[in-house]
Amino acid sequence: MSEQYPALLVIVPLLSALVVSVAGWVNKRWCFPIAVAALSVSAWSSVGLLFRVLNEGVIVYKLGGWSPPMGIAYYIDYLNGLVLPVVSIVALLNLISSKRTVEQQFPDKTGPFYTLYVLMVTGLLGIVVTGDAFNLYVLLEIASLTGYGLLAMGEERAPLATLNYLYMGTIGACFYLLGIGYLYIVTGSLNMVDIARLLPPLYQSKAVLAAFIICMVGVWLKMAFFPLHAWLPNAYTFANSASSSLIAPLVTKVMVYVMIRLMLTIFTPKFVFNTLAVHDAVVWLAVIAIAMGAVLALKERNLKKMLTYIVVAEVGYMVGGAWLGNRAGLTGAVLHIVNDALMTLCVFLVVGNIVYKIKGYAFGDLKGLFAKMPFTMGAFVIGALSIIGVPPTCGFFSKWYLILGAIQAHQYGFMVALLFSSLINVVLFFRVFEIGFYEPFSDHEGHEHHPAVMAEAPLTMLVPLYVVAISLILVGLYTGDIVNHIVQFVIPKGFM
Amino acid sequence: METITSIRPLLAVLVSLLIIPLVVVSSRSPNVRETWTFVAAVAKFLIVLSMLPAILRGTEIVYTVVQFMPGAAIKFRVDALGMLFALVSSSLWIITSAYSIGYMRGLKEHGQTRYFCFFAICLSATIGAAFSANLLTLYLFYEILSLATYPLVTHHQDLEARSSGRKYLLYVVGASIGLVLPAMLICYNLAGTLEFSKNGILAGTAASPSLLFILLFMFVFGFAKSAIMPMHSWLPAAMVAPTPVSALLHAVAVVKVGVFSIVRILTGVFGIQLLSSSHLGMAVCCVAAFTILVGSFIALSQDGLKRLLAFSTIAQLSYIVLGVALLSPKGMTGGMLHIAMHAFGKITLFFCAGAIFVATGKKNISEMIGIGRRMPVTMAAFFIASLSIIGMPPCGGFISKWYLALGTLQAHQIGFLVVLLFSSLLNACYFIPITYKAFFCRPEDAMFENKVQEAPVFCVVPLVITATISVILLFYPQPFLRLARMMVQSITGV
How far apart are CA B478 and CA B210, in angstroms? Predict the structure, then answer.
């Protein structure tokens, strides 16, 4: 059974998507349980895989028994061993939490929604698990196309914003495909390990150089790395809350994973940091991404859109960390994939709860929210503190490694950007807290408070939210173990 | 140095967090709710007290919660200084809880459940900071304390509270993220550890003098809770909080955590050898002396009683920093002892200010002429406590000031002796007239009728207790003096 985990991970949700689709015509109430069951299997398999990797080391799984480089192989090492459970668990928690929202927002479309949802998760898990560069492209397209569908189910402006995303996303995917094409031409292989074996003698080739750069730009487009971010804020803001709280935590993080995979597995650190040697420039791009994300978030008067700009800034954290080219920076970037997925999920679930009860997410709608939804806001505070980077939440520890990496690489600009972004985050979140806490202002010198009527979200939304919020603290406290047992094996030999 | 591993430091931190669910659940029956606060306060004090004999024997108690990098862990180490601070804050929490009941119910404040919850979190963070074994743990509890104090400062939820809250966050959280966090990481990168050590972790590293200078001042200004100028102006603004908050947090816990952090930086991170050889101690002394003088002068011109006390606190906090930065054994003893002595005196003064507000609604000194006729007990306690702050017998403040003065002589710094004495004179100038006018004014000037009407008993009893302790501390300054001496001895060997 456990030998088949890599396949179950992807096959079960893929086939379940078809079942859900059919169930949607027969009886809409079946869709949700089937989707939950499918994603539970994925979550179970991914956690099982992580433990297998911890015990046995890297796992190679030949799909259909075909040997690479002809067949497709799944490689599960410490990097995707860590990312897989995050993706599957985030997707599962969000699925459970958003049941009520889906019923409220589009009761007629639950069938198509759950079909797209499960397919999208299939795509994301596939991207992470596959060891084949072309297969990755296919799964990337599955995840993207379903993502466009999910995001377009939203407010009036959602289809237009998603169309914008579709253009940019397609260009990004094409870039990636083009780069892989170059690699195929020079090496004749699509298997990542095989390409990595064949490439070193060709490092001086212009085609290889072009392949790397084109792939990288494609991936950056997909992850909304500033200035290629313009599609993200509107697409995520206007979408329905169930979709945005799936896509915002996962898509950018999975693309960061792909970037690190490109840098470490397909290419080598020697090529990226010695032959190519543009890492200083990329770190400066990350500095700009972080600063601009923070500044753009500052001008928003709308909670959800503000959060999307924070996502843009966080992408800068991870890109910068990975390109610092040292042990601490890469550790920080990998940790931040996990941490940022969790904390973005936390705050977007909060937005989901707010939209469910208040029907709005502009700053003006948030008045008196601490009294109306104390539990939701409690979780929001934990998520916000993690994004700010207050110990013992996990956001602090990944920031710790990133800043340490910046100091060790003498990239003080990156250090300043991280601190600047933390300070801006304090302003951003306390501005929201202030509205929820003070307004509407009471009369009679603050002693005449009319107790606001509590209108808390249902338990099915609060329980997943609190699972995430508490995990932010637990992951923070166990950062040492995560680094010692998992992340340190991601770092290639020779990295200082 | 002998060490014992024990979970008690962690328990002392957690005990007040554990009662929070109970406080929330019993929010509808205030008496039950306040019982939980007392249970936690007494339990916390007893746990701290149970560690005292071991500390006095010269052992240290350590407990590692979680190690996350070599040299960086969430770890507790109870030493003499931490014990001193924990004793002061945990004992005063019991008294403040009683006072809070009198004050909050006397004024029929809203949101009392929230108030008691966040108070409990603050005390957890304070004890955690006191027992921190390394800079990371200290930073962790420092940040938790900053954030948990915010809802207390802004308790009234009006426009004034919001603007004060903004100022508070800007200074306290802004400085800790903007200055302390990078300084801590640079330290870690230089020394490879954050564990406080007797000789200082930065001693013997390759840091250049200018880098050391920058790091030191990133810490000194970054720990803005210590209210060293120019990072002080959050403290007067925070006086918008209910008075028990000002009393325990802004005279004892929060501000002392700031000063305590700076003491840890001076003694545990830099080490006195490094500070004296590089003359960095002198630089800190100058900043502290400036704060002492300017703070006292500004206090002279204040009419709002709580604002006056806030500026007085700003000046007194710098006594502690000055004493330790003198690097002479007597000066360091005086500085550490002042943590305790100032706490008992200043909390009494705040209690009195709150009692006056509850009983009469007055906040300004100009409206308190003749108030001694109406509230004689309160104003007598006020007088005793102000003597303690000025540093006159028969109060505990005399001992710490005596040691501080001796410390300046021991360090051959006559200039700072003058600063200390002049500041005492200024203290007298702004405190004595308040009491004088309260009791000795012409009958036609008196603003109150000649009829005794004190604040509720829950307000009056705590301030009588703390005033009495202030007096007792002169005659029996143990265990605080002994703890301060032990700490100084372990650092300097004298």
Answer: 41
**3-class secondary structure per residue, B282-332:** HHHHHHHHHHHHHHHHHHHCCCEHHHHHHHHHHHHHHHHHHHHHCCCHHHH
The first and second tokens of residue A182, run together, are: 């170059």
Nearest to A408 among B73, B182, B189 (CB): B189
Instruction: Judge whether A258 and A139 are in contact, CB under 8 Å.
Output: no
Number of Cβ pairs < 8 A linking chain A and chain B: 84
Over residues B146-172, the mean pLDDT reads 89
Contact B159 A441 (CB under 8 A): yes
Max alpha carbon distance in chain A (Å)?
79
Phi, psi of A268 (to 5 degrees): -120, 155
Instruction: Report how far residue B40's alpha carbon sits from residue B117's, in angstroms, rounded to the nearest whole number.
Output: 11
* Residues A327, A333, A337, A340, CA torsion sign: positive
Query: Among B329, B323, B275, which Cα is nearest to B494's?
Result: B329
- Partners of B76 in the β-ladder: B63, B132
Listed residue (B156, B149, B227, B222) closest to B187, CA to CA: B222
* Residues contacting residue B67 through CB under 8 Å, at least 6 positions apart: A480, B73, B75
> How many Cβ atoms are within 10 Å of A490's Cβ, its own excluded?
20
Condensed to tens digits (0 to 9), the pLDDT of residues A353-363 reads: 998 888 888 88
Instruction: Scan residues 138-197 of B and list those with Cβ closer than 8 Å to A.
Output: 139-140, 143-144, 147, 151, 154, 156-159, 161-162, 165-166, 169, 173-174, 177-178, 181-182, 185-186, 188-189
Domain locations in chain A?
A: 278-496
Chain centroid offset of residue A140 CA: 14
Name chain A contacts of B161, Cβ cutoff 8 Å.
Answer: 438, 446
Give CA–CA dist A129/A61, Å, rounded.
Answer: 10
Distance CA A57, CA A76 (A): 9
| A426:B147 CB<8 A | no
- Residue A121: pLDDT above 80? yes
What average pLDDT does chain B have? 88
Q: Is the distance from CB of A261 to CB of A335 less than 8 angstroms?
A: no
In this structure, the dihedral spanned by the alpha carbons of residues B375, B381, B386 and B387, taken in order and rounded to 10 degrees, is: 130
Q: What is the structure's pLDDT at A1?
A: 65
Record: contact B157-A423, CB cut-off 8 A: no
Q: Output the 3-class SS for A137-155.
A: HHHHHHHHHHHHHHHHCEC
Contact B98, B458 (CB under 8 A): yes
**Chain B residues in contact with A400 (beta carbon < 8 A):** 185
**Using the 8-state DSSP alphabet, how is residue B158 labeled?**
S
Segment B423-441 shows an average pLDDT of 88
Instruction: State which amino acid sits at residue A29.
Output: R
Alpha-carbon distance of B322 to B132, in angstroms, equals 22
From first CA to last CA, the distance across chain A in angstroms is: 39
Find, in chain B, the residue whose alpha carbon is nearest to that of A397: B68
* Partner-chain contact B189 A391, CB within 8 Å: no
CA distances in angstroms from A269 to A204, A261, A328, A410, B462, listed in the order given: 15, 11, 15, 19, 66
Q: Which residues of B touch A408 (CB under 8 A)?
A: 189
Q: CA-to-CA distance for B291 and B288, rounded, in angstroms?
A: 5
Q: What is the residue type of A68?
A: P
- Residue range A133-180, pLDDT digits in tens: 899 999 999 999 999 999 988 888 888 989 999 999 999 999 999 999
Q: Give me the residues of A, 231-250, that contact B with CB < 8 A.
A: none
Let me know: does B74 contact B137? Beta carbons within 8 Å.
yes
Q: Given CB atoms, is A335 within the 8 Å cutoff of chain B?
A: no
- The chain B residue lying nearest A474, using CA atoms, is B66
pTM: 0.92
Take residue B55 and report the two structure tokens written for it. 């500390």
Which residue do the tokens 């916390």 mark?
Answer: B44
